[in-house]
């Protein structure tokens, strides 16, 4: 007598015939199974969890997840699927997909794009695009080019307005708008500064409110257009996150306008979302027929992955 176990989370099919009597030998049929996938077979929490918002070493300067370690950790914890969503780059996706294959974890291609819409700044996640698609690479390059150009213009303009800006030539890379904003707030008394706001947030508040047009990220609608072209989906990242003026929680009007612009879905599950925000976003997803996604935004191995049940994530049915 044998009991059949079938593991379907693997790149290969694994059928294990487990003996019901201790003295019977187990019959194991494993087709093209790697050792890592074999380990995943025995993971008690396998196939359950999903985290579609993780930053790897491809996010420059402040993220340290190596793709191999990320995939191995996820397999060990019983994950079904992962996505690397680095800022404006897909440089780690291929390595994570290869590592995911070795460890028996599905890896969805992803990227998180700095963008703006309706006078607010948003992060837009694109899932399911080939990571080397020319249109996607061009989109990412445009983000960096526009940001660098705006930073250079501010470096020329702000000193002429009497602001002190020093130290930005010693970064070892061209300064971006966030660098300029941070230096602006750190080295000057900014009119209208909100008490308690950090330097980057205060500097961005000044730029966005006192110098409109000085920072011109690409539009969420432009990101949506590229996603459409590639058969991918565009998802609004952390719509409930509040982080000063450059991350204002989305309200009903914001969501309606973004849906009108073609948004495919929203990141409902996110560590800083309150229960009320999650409920608001779930109802919006239902009202507009939006895909539901979620993730941890983990940047480092010491930051926990989000263990979201795969059945909650309707996005998984829409992307390869
Ligand atoms: Zn983000
Ligand atoms: Zn992120």
CATH class of the largest domain: Alpha Beta
Task: List bound small molecules.
Answer: zinc ion
CATH superfamily of the largest domain: Metal-dependent hydrolases
Question: Could you say what the CATH topology of the largest domain is called?
Answer: TIM Barrel
Helix segment tally: 9
The string of secondary-structure elements, in order, is EEEHEHEHEEEHHHHEHEHEE
- Give the class from helix and strand content and strand pairing: alpha/beta
Adjacency order of strands in the biggest sheet: 7-8-9-10-11
Question: Which residues sit in consecutive blocks of at least 5 with pLDDT less than 50?
Answer: 1-35
Q: Tally the structural domains.
A: 3
Helix content: 25-40%
> What is the overall pLDDT average?
87
CATH second-level architecture of the largest domain: Alpha-Beta Barrel
Distance between the termini: 38 Å
Overall 3D shape: globular
Q: Percent of residues in beta strands?
A: 15-25%
Largest sheet, in brief, is:
5 strands, mixed
How many strand elements?
Answer: 12
Cα Rg: 22 Å
Account of the 3D structure:
The protein is of the alpha/beta class and 320 residues long. It is built from nine helices and twelve strands. The chain has a five-stranded mixed β-sheet. A four-stranded mixed β-sheet has the order 6-5-4-12, with helices on one face. A three-stranded antiparallel β-sheet has the order 1-2-3, with no helix packed on it. α8 (252-260) links the parallel β9 (233-236) and β10. The site of one zinc ion has 5 residues, from loops.
């Amino acid at each position: 007598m044998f009991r059949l176990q079938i593991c379907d989370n693997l790149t290969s099919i694994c059928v294990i015939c487990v003996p019901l009597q201790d003295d019977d030998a187990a019959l194991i049929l494993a087709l093209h199974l790697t050792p890592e996938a074999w380990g995943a077979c025995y993971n008690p929490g396998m196939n359950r969890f999903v985290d579609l918002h993780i930053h790897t070493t491809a996010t420059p300067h402040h993220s340290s997840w190596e793709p191999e370690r990320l995939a191995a950790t996820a397999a060990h914890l019983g994950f079904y699927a992962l996505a690397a969503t680095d800022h404006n780059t897909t440089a780690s996706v291929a390595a994570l997909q290869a590592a995911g294959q070795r460890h028996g974890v599905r890896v969805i291609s992803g990227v998180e794009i700095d963008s703006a819409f309706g006078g607010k700044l948003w992060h837009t996640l694109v899932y399911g695009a080939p990571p080397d698609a020319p249109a996607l690479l061009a989109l990412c390059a445009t983000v960096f080019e526009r940001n660098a150009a705006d930073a250079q213009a501010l470096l020329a303009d702000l000193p002429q307005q009497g602001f002190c800006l020093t130290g930005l030539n010693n970064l070892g890379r061209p300064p971006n708008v966030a660098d300029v904003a941070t230096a602006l707030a750190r080295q000057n008394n900014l009119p209208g500064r909100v008490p308690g706001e950090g330097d980057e947030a205060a500097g961005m508040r000044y730029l966005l409110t006192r110098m409109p047009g000085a920072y011109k990220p690409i539009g969420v609608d432009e990101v949506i257009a590229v996603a459409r072209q590639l058969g991918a989906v565009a998802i609004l990242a952390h719509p409930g996150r509040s982080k000063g003026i450059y991350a204002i929680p989305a309200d009903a009007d914001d969501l309606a306008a973004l849906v009108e612009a073609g948004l495919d879905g929203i990141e409902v599950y996110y560590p800083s979302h309150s229960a009320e925000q999650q409920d608001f976003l779930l109802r919006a997803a239902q009202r507009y027929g939006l895909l539901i996604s979620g993730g941890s935004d983990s940047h480092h191995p010491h930051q926990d992955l989000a263990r979201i049940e795969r059945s909650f994530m309707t996005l998984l049915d829409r992307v390869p």
